[in-house]
Task: inverse folding
């Protein structure tokens, strides 16, 4: 062979960066081709046996419960509970006054409908403690009754049967308010239709009766209380009135308001003396006003300009006549002398009128003076009378204070007595009327069909339970199952480009790959095509294939890629670098006496060790004898030197490397190649193992071209066919075909 060149490390050409994770555009494409519902469907198909088992168990349980249940009959009675009582006598309040808000009122009524006291009334009315039909209708056997009777005799006290009856009644009765209305449905359920109807109607009747009893009881208590208070107030009123009359007679106090009814007397209550003083005061005020008016007239100035003179008809007439004569005299003086007879006659008339006006004015002034004197006299007379009456009233004032105290006490007692008497009458009328605010809307009729068990409802409930349990089980199993379930999980969960997915086949993969129409051939062809975009120069010239652990199909994938590349007219060397558990010689049915281990150990006869496979362009270099320490051979520069020699005679070199986890072999081999194709077995390899293997490859400087998902089963939904071939990592006693690493 030719001499070796200086070894190289790592990729010899730039590597195209394939998207490791889904970007926004990838999400949009994926959502358009792989809907979320389809993923759910694939999950359901994968766990279909578990789901079917859960649904079957739930349906059987629902059917068994339905068939074993005793039929139950439900009777319903409708009532109306009015917030406002229908009181035909228009009596407001009394004991049944509205208390609190509507919500509190109706909540109280609903609680009363479920009260133990009501259950006791129903039990005693129908004598249920001694009714065998009642106990049979509620599934109580004779043995259970005997045990209850023994317990009651041992404990003593109230009847154990009665307590059992009350417990049964409260368990089987239901109160259902009708929303946004005053209607309430009383529902009773038992095994007997007649018993259910009877108890529903009796329950309502006893509820109405208990309501009426509470009203009557409260009314009777109120009447009894009011009667005692009335007797006490009546005696107190009579005594206070006698005290007031006796004191007034002894002190000669004559009140003027004895005839008032219900009036409240004050300390200034009117007596005869006070009434006379009020009248004299009013007369004195009028006299003083008259005197002031008369005095103002006198002090008002000249009598000629007084109101009396100006309004006197005689004076007014004379003044008008004088004005006419004065005007006439002025006209005469224009033409004649003062001594002219006509002018002198007019002048004499004017003088006579002036004298008459003066005389009349004097008379008016004298009358005004007389009026003033009379007003002064009358005022003084009234002042004397008022003073004398005040002296008398002052003498009675001290006595009147005590009298008013007696009178006020009597008035207070009278008001209390009248109010309490009116209340007593109202209570009597309300009790006689017997107001009832509860009315029956629909009486319960005997049910003709059982209300339970409901086969349809129970089976639907069983299906719902089965659905819930199935979802929970699938979610739990999905969490436990950490394998790659969909090829898309590689890029979504592991951040590694997906090169393609390969179906699980039950035929010999070598034979399947020989048929270009097979699904296996098409799948690996798709992987080869995608790998061509991993570098700028197309298919990488050197590529290593590895996996997280053994048995994932990496050897078959290495053979398939090498075979498909050779079909394009290229010379491809397939190298089995798994120096621990080689399998390519078994897949291709080739000898493995010498191979890579010999070359790594220093032998140079490469041509003698490379074998023709009989396939176009495909050559095989087997592993050769298994060395005691593969890492020592692989860690030297010999492998890189060999690759350079191989590339002189071959267009591509495909290396089947060992698994990554637990071994250093794959890490060393991957660094000498341009990159690594990572193989993942669907639904088997845990994700944590895959992540650990990928992390080791990246930390050691290996370029990862992408991942290929193998053994994808038909039920996963990735393929529309079914294959059953089981891949396997090479084992010493494994069959010669169909198993790989």
Result:
């Amino acid at each position: 062979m030719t001499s070796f060149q200086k070894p190289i490390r790592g990729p010899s050409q730039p590597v195209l960066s394939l998207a490791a994770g889904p970007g926004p555009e990838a999400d949009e494409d994926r959502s358009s081709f792989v809907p979320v519902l389809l993923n759910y469907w694939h999950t359901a198909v994968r766990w279909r046996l578990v789901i079917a088992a859960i649904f079957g168990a739930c349906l059987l349980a629902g059917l068994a419960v339905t068939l074993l249940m005793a039929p139950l009959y439900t009777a319903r009675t409708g009532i109306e509970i009015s917030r406002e009582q229908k009181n035909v006598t228009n009596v407001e309040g009394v004991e049944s006054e509205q208390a609190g808000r509507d919500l509190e009122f109706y909540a109280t009524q609903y609680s009363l409908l479920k009260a133990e006291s009501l259950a006791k009334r129903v039990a005693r009315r129908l004598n249920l403690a001694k009714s065998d039909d009642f106990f049979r209708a509620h599934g109580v056997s004779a043995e259970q009754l005997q045990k209850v009777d023994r317990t009651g005799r041992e404990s003593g006290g109230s009847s154990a049967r009665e307590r059992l009856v009350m417990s049964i009644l409260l368990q089987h009765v239901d109160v259902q308010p009708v929303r946004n209305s005053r209607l309430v449905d009383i529902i009773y359920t038992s095994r007997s239709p007649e018993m259910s109807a009877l108890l529903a109607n009796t329950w309502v009747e006893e509820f109405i009766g208990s309501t009426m009893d509470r009203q009557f009881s409260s009314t009777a208590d109120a009447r009894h209380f009011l009667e005692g208070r009335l007797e006490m107030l009546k005696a107190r009123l009579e005594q206070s009135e006698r005290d007031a009359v006796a004191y007034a007679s002894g002190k000669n106090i004559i009140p003027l308001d004895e005839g008032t009814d219900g009036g409240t007397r004050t300390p200034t209550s009117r007596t005869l003396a006070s009434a006379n003083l009020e009248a004299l005061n009013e007369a004195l005020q009028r006299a003083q006003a008259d005197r002031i008016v008369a005095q103002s007239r006198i002090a008002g100035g000249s009598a000629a300009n007084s109101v009396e003179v100006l309004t006197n008809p005689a004076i007014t007439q004379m003044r008008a006549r004088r004005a006419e004569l004065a005007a006439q005299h002025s006209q005469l003086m224009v033409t004649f002398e003062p001594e002219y007879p006509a002018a002198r006659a007019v002048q004499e008339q004017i003088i006579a009128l002036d004298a008459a006006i003066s005389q009349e004015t004097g008379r008016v002034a004298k009358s005004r003076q007389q009026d003033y004197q009379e007003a002064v006299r009358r005022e003084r007379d009234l002042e004397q009378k008022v003073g004398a009456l005040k002296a008398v009233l002052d003498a009675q004032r001290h006595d009147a204070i005590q009298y008013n105290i007696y009178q006020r006490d009597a008035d207070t007692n009278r008001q209390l007595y009248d109010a309490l008497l009116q209340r007593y009458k109202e209570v009597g009328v309300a009790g006689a009327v017997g107001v009832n605010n509860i009315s029956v809307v629909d009486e319960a009729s005997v049910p003709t069909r059982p209300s339970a068990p409901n086969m349809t409802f129970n089976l639907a409930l069983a299906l719902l339970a089965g659905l819930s349990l199935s979802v929970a089980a699938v979610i739990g199993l999905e969490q436990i199952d950490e394998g790659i379930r969909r090829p898309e999980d590689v890029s979504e969960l592991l951040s590694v480009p997906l090169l393609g997915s390969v179906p699980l086949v039950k035929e010999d993969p070598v034979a399947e790959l020989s048929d270009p129409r097979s699904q296996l051939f098409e799948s690996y062809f798709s992987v080869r095509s995608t790998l061509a975009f991993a570098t700028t120069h197309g298919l990488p010239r050197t590529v290593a294939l590895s996996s997280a652990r053994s048995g994932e199909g990496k050897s078959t994938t290495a053979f398939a890629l090498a075979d498909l590349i050779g079909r394009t007219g290229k010379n491809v060397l397939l190298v089995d670098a798994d120096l621990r558990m080689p399998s390519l010689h078994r897949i291709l049915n080739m000898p493995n006496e010498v191979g890579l281990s010999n070359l790594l150990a220093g032998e140079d006869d490469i041509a003698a060790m490379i074998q023709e496979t009989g396939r176009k362009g495909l050559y095989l270099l087997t592993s050769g004898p298994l060395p005691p320490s593969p890492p020592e051979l692989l860690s030297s520069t010999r492998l890189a030197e060999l690759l350079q020699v191989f590339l002189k005679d071959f267009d591509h070199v495909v290396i089947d490397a060992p698994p990554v986890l637990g071994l250093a072999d794959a890490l060393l081999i991957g660094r000498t190649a341009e990159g690594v194709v990572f193989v993942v077995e669907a639904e088997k390899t845990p994700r944590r193992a895959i992540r650990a293997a990928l992390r080791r490859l990246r930390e050691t400087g290996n370029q990862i071209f992408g991942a290929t998902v193998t053994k994808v089963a038909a039920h996963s939904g990735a393929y529309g066919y079914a294959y059953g071939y089981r891949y396997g990592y090479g084992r010493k006693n494994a069959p010669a075909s169909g198993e790989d690493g």
